[in-house]
Amino acid sequence: MGKLEELFYRGIGSLDLTVNKLEELVQSLVEEGELTKKQGKELVERWQEKGDEQKDKLEDIFDEKLDDLGVVRVDEFDKLKERVARIEGKLSNIENGASQNKTEI
Q1: Cα-based distances in Å from 63 to 4, 7, 16, 35, 78
Q2: What is the pLDDT of residues 16-47, one digit of tens each?
Q3: CA-to-CA distance for 9 and 55, rounded, in angstroms?
Q4: Among 56, 59, 63, 62, residue whose Cα is nearest residue 48
Q5: DSSP 56-80
Q6: Nearest partner of 14 among 45, 55, 44, 47, judged by Cα
């Protein structure tokens, strides 16, 4: 899973870097008078929305690949631990009840 996770984070990092570079470019265009501040802000916002959409797509792809590999997620694992703990508690109560019944007989 290490390579898949690394690929995911590289993709996210690339998107963030692209948005940062775009912000720098827009800022220089505003300073040079090629764009108004409003135009620059709108452009950056559109690209941020597109970047967020791409991040969502990457996350979906990553989740699909994890599912394909049969990787258990942390929240699923935590639920299983809680379930096992409840079952162990019930089993312990049953065993204790059986032990008490033997001593009473």
Answers
A1: 10, 13, 20, 40, 18
A2: 777 788 888 889 988 999 889 999 889 888 88
A3: 10
A4: 56
A5: HHHHHHHHHHHHHHTPPPHHHHHHH
A6: 55
Amino acid in position 35: L
Q: Coil, helix or strand for 55?
A: helix
The sign one gets for the Cα dihedral 27, 28, 29, 35 is: positive
**Model confidence over 43-101: pLDDT tens digits?**
888 888 888 888 888 888 888 888 888 888 889 999 999 999 999 999 998 888 776 76
Structure-block tokens of residue 90 = 């019930």
